[in-house]
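Could you join me in thinking about how sequence relates to backbone shape in a protein? We need material for that, and I hope you will provide a protein of your own picking. Once you have written the record down, we can walk along the chain together:

…
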Amino acid sequence: MTTDDQTTRTGPFRVLLVDDQELVRAGIGTILDAQPDLTVVGEARTGRQALDQARALQPDVICMDVQMPDMDGLEATRLVVADPEIHAGVLILTTFHREDYLVEALDAGASGFLLKNSRPEQLVDGVRSVAAGDALLAPEVTRAVISRAVAGRRAEGVEGP
């Protein structure tokens, strides 16, 4: 899709919550459902359930945990992004501030990456950004992405601007 074909989407945005902890899903759901332009349309506790729910419910955004039983969120993200029946952006939500998770999530096609200790406003803004087709990284992990990009340019012998 070219930029000319894109239209700016406004809500209501449909959200699928994927986390193996019921209390976490309930808390995130309460925050998102309090917004007039966001609606939680379903929940899943495993990556496999996420795929089934995404196909059935057609959310705009999937908030995906990383560590879950059955299939982790990174593999589920990879499959969601590759599935022509699913048109949702994936926002990774994790407790773990690990660079390997960040890199794998981006490689899998996630549109966003937030830590679960983010402020509620960051979560809401993140869901809206992903729903609008934008990308979002938690401020805490942005430095790792910048460092990796700079190191890659240096390794390739590319000079700065």
Notes: Helices lie at 22-33, 47-57, 73-82, 99-108, 120-131, 139-155. The chain is about 45% helix and 20% strand.
